[in-house]
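Posting this for the archive.
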Amino acid sequence: MTDFIPAPLEEKWQNAWDTSNCFSAEDNSKQPKYYVLEMFPYPSGRIHMGHVRNYALGDVVARFKRAKGFNVLHPMGWDAFGLPAENAAIERKTHPAKWTRQNIASMREQLKSMGLSYDWEREIATCEPDYYKHEQSMFLKFLEHGLAYRKESWVNWDPVENTVLANEQVVDGCGWRSGVPVERRKLSQWFLNITRYGNELLEALESLNNWPDRVRLMQHNWIGRSEGAQIKFEITSPINTDFSELEVFTTRPDTLFGASFIAISAHHPLAEKLAFTHSDIANFISECDALGTSEAAIEQAEKRGLNTGLYVKHPIIIGKELPVYIANFVLMDYGTGAVFGCPAHDQRDLDFANKYDLPVTVVVCPDGEDADSFSVTNLAYTGAGTLVNSGDWNGLSVEAAKIRAIKALEEGGVGITKTTFRLRDWGVSRQRYWGCPIPIIHCDKCGIVPVPENQLPVILPEDVSFNTTGNPLDTHPDWKYVDCPKCGANSLRETDTFDTFFESSWYFLRFVDPKSEKAFNAEKAAYWMPVDQYIGGVEHAVLHLLYSRFFTRALSDTGYLNLSEPFAGLMTQGMVCHQSFKSADGQWLFPDQVKKIGDGYVSVEDDSPVQPGRVEKMSKSKRNVVDPEEIIKTYGADTARLFMLSDSPPDRDLEWTEAGAEGAFKFISKIYKLSIEAPEKPQNEIASDTLPSLSEEAIELLKIAHRSVDSISENIERFAFNKCVAQLHIFVNALSSYKQKDANAQRVRHHVLGLLAQILSPFAPHIAEELWSKLGYTKLVASSPWPIVFESLLIDDTIEIAVQINGKVRAKLNLPLDMPKNEVETAALLNEDVKKYLDGNDVKCVIVVPNRIINVVY
């Protein structure tokens, strides 16, 4: 059979890998370890092209490192809890557990069809009690060590989903799934004390040298350490003894002389106190609540305020008073929930001041500007400069004035130096069924009572009803009713479940010992951790990665392990994109509903015109998606993998095209043809000491082969997989062109085909195994060591040297390396191009820079 049909070939080698168990990691190996992990998927039931790219990238690394002699851990699991599964189950009138497990089974088969080198014996699913019982125990440890606590807090409430949303799940003021405006509600929530590690998480970013700079910067900004001052502003006519002053945090104490108002959050205690007796304030607070708690939404909203009628004394300028406003842009969770406004040097403050006709006083003048004439009207000045209109601080730089300001505040007893963080403690409570139960019991007598360790796990009840809105655990007839473990009184279980980021913040540790009765074995964790190479989308750059870094520290502080950073190396892959299409009536079309005719596109169904759109991220909503299962059925897994690796660097977006897939398939087919024509294994294989006996053509092919091994080895380490694939094309083309038939030709062909199979294996493992077996090798190429390069073949014995005539390059010569100067000069003057440009003129001198350049002057 000469036609390449991928399905039976790929199935054959997948079965061979399973039978040989060649991808199992050894816990007690003497080999150096290498832990490669791709971010595990949510089991939606179907893999998408983003999965194919992500997992193909990781598989290249895993197979390469295994061939290089490492003991490789390359596991797979399922991030299986979450509201999407609950909603999907409700829509399909089934149970979330059944729906999730069916999806896992389906996706497992799809991933196996890709030929990925996973150790499936370590598979985990976070929805199983033997997984989540350990995180319940972790939570109780955190509670014991002050890393978990409960408090009332303002949250984003989705009135359709009936659950709390993280700020990142609020898009333009609406729920990310429901699309309806979110509400602010005050609920008792469980929090993890991530801010305890704020400084450590920030400073440790400097040590993560194998992380992308942009990810480190995103985390740096998210943690957001701010140095400044906390200032007391005395209220001139306090409403009672509880509110005699307002405390304000600022990073710009140098601008105090430009202050023209105080703004407090709608949920500052003072604002809430005033709302009891002022209906206009209560109404304004309700309007602020409609914005939700998202920083982005608040920042983008029109800046609005309400004058409370209260005033405070300026802490520096005697006799000056500032009005107090309630403002919709002040966050209660940042600083103290109150700010002073300096309109001339903060754009938000300036917009607010212009809206409410408040004074704008310049106190920082740009260097080189005339202080008397410099003014601010619609654009705030936020740069460096010299202080003006600031009393004794005039003439100081901004940084010097900050120091002087803090000193003056401290001496006056009205302020102190303060460091704050943008980072907030992590709210982990979710009002839904399909999540890990929080192991807490509420007793009227004893208060909050942890579930005893010997009663873990607290398992979700199977017999729940989704006929009403909200959390089914709240309405279950008996699950939440329990006796208090301390006093035996009738009590209630906590019905909130954990945020799903809880599960994904430690799953990489469970992989090191997934069958353990403990969360993980400390010795095995010490051997395998940290993850050497973590791979996933940049959309997880902040939350998942930051929470995982926190969790690792928290587990270390509670005695589970001794580790600070979970991921030594990080690679964030780009998105998979496809052109989008719309029909004449504006409906999105799938790519297989469109065909190209000439320079345009028409509908497959009726030849009606189709409007092509942008090339953008594949999404179901725009129907610009390609089904990986269909691609694998049509072209094979090797084709899908190779195309994903070939077209662009892994960290950049990739456009999927049918032409690109067909090109990859033709390349695989070409290798299949080479496997059919593969020579038998010779008695005497090519060795580095047999090279002198070979023909010039054979040596040239061997040079390309061994340089390909060297280049691909280097580029895999650099994640330059597209360059690897380009080199494979060069190698295969050279091999296909080799037509020698002398006595050594078959030995040479067998040798280079073997090299091809070995270096092809990380990228297209099925065809590599087929080629390897046709060469007579009985051991799987997946279990074979990486080839050893013949170093002598990497050395160039010729070099290209440019010839300049009177300063201009006129010719290039290929000459032996380190050729004597006199011979180089002779070769240059005999060159036909050089003769043409000399045009019979007498040569004055020839200057030869060995192995670099030849200068001819006439």
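The longest helix spans residues 696-717. Residues 126 and 507 are 8 Å apart (CA to CA).
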